[in-house]
Amino acid sequence: MNRMYEYDVIIIGGSVAGLSAASFLNAKNIKTAVVEKNLQANGICTTAINPRSLDYMKRMGVINHIKDYDTYFKINGVKTYGYDGVSCKGFYNHDRSYLNYGHCLPREVVNNAFFEMVKELEYVNYMAPFLIQEVTHESDGEQVSVYGKYKKENITLRAKLIIDAMGRGSFIARDKQLFSYDSNHKRYALFCMFEKVSLTEPMFHIGTNAVVGPGYYTVFPVKDDKVMVAIFLTEEVASPQSYLDSFIKSSSFALSPYFRQAVQASELTSVGPIAFRNKQYTLEKTLMIGDSTGFFDPLTGEGLTQAFITAELASETVINYLKQGNWDRYAESYERRIAEYKTYSVGHASKLQQLLKYPNAYNRFIVSMAKNQKAADWQTCAVGNIFSQQERTSNELWEILVGRKKK
Ligand SMILES: Cc1cc2nc3c(=O)[nH]c(=O)nc-3n(C[C@H](O)[C@H](O)[C@H](O)COP(=O)(O)OP(=O)(O)OC[C@H]3O[C@@H](n4cnc5c(N)ncnc54)[C@H](O)[C@@H]3O)c2cc1C
């Protein structure tokens, strides 16, 4: 038997982007189905949550579902290390309405909190595990159908629109060849948790050295003596575990003194290439959100922020379309807004990635910031995705550094 259910929107993918879109649509009473292939989302690593993302998580009520929320470190900024160990500290020192600190939460904690949040949404039906067999568009172009298996039954879901929140696993993007990998910007990631690390400063630590450069490492304090370590390399390594073991012990790793007693506390995950771009963000009656719009580099929470911002923009687009019709107009506007957001989102990170290729220049940059607290704070807020589009891609940092701008 094939059961049929009608919705306004079907979201495919029930991770951070998909469930955020569900939350925004629910707030406007839009009847939504979320289909997730796993029992619960298992999207790739997310640990760094910057102040802007934290603000979204508060707005959606996700924070309320994080058990022992107050026991996690409240991150107040970023400590950055250059190639030769020089370092500077920048703080989330800004006057935005966002919370003035970030967080570092294990991915399963974030996923569970989203999962609990979505259960409370009146207009949203979360269906998992749902195995999609086919997505079809009706000939009049008005309805989209998703066929699949759910709880051993064959199900057809019909709706007016689809939101693709499948991240890098999107079969829609894959079939239409929307993803493109940039040969100048390859990043392979290794990441895992460590315990018994005596890292006391509640800051994100981001650095490089001759071993990983022009890649970088991140060490993010989570809770008590737990930290998340990630290393972003420009080439794949043959034996990730032995690479990690020797890296942690190497004297060129500026944080190695804190790792003397450290014990690896989770399996090492190795993934890549992780950076890719999208050729477009809409297809016939389909809006792409989160990582299915492409993903450049994580830095400190860029992935989550992108998921929230694109989910919010897609929800606005859905609401406008359901009220007014005229898909072409709203799809075109969505394309434009996402493209603008992408320029801003990757703009500053691209500049930093370029600088990493020149060790002397990068060291000088860190030294200049160590001497100029305003510049270091600006840089930290930019990396934390806090500034507006104009500010983040402006020359403001350089103006502060050379002393032309008193801020
Ligand atoms: C190494 C690494 C470190 C990172 N660190 C950070 C960080 O510190 N901070 C940060 O903010 N971001 C980080 N990111 C990025 C962040 O993980 C992603 O940007 C974020 O998970 C994107 O969310 P999403 O919902 O778009 O996609 P995902 O989280 O990938 O979710 C996609 C969902 O779609 C489901 N799905 C896929 N195919 C189907 C299908 N056919 N049917 C139904 N469901 C399907 C999947 O099961 C999954 O649940 C990191 C990424 C990497 C690779």
What can you tell me about this protein's structure?
- The chain is an alpha/beta fold and 407 residues long.
- It has a domain at 2-72 and 103-181 and 277-345: FAD/NAD(P)-binding domain.
- The protein has eleven helices and 23 strands.
- It has helices spanning 16-27, 51-59, 107-119, 171-175, 240-249, 302-324, 327-356, 359-371, 373-383, 389-393, 396-401, and strands at residues 2-6, 9-12, 32-35, 48-49, 77-81, 87-91, 103-104, 124-127, 130-137, 144-150, 153-159, 161-164, 179-180, 188-195, 204-207, 216-223, 226-233, 263-264, 269-271, 276-278, 282-283, 286-288, 294-295.
- Strands 5, 6, 14, 15, 16, 17, 18 and 19 form an eight-stranded mixed sheet that branches. The protein has a six-stranded mixed sheet with strand order 8-3-2-12-22-21.
- The protein is globular and about 65 Å long.
- The mean pLDDT is 92.
- Residues 12-18, 35-38, 41-48, 132, 165-167, 169, 171, 189, 191, 230, 271, 274, 290-291, 295, 298, 301-304, 307 line the site of flavin-adenine dinucleotide.
- Flavin-adenine dinucleotide is lined by residues 12-18, 35-38, 41-48, 132, 165-167, 169, 171, 189, 191, 230, 271, 274, 290-291, 295, 298, 301-304, 307.
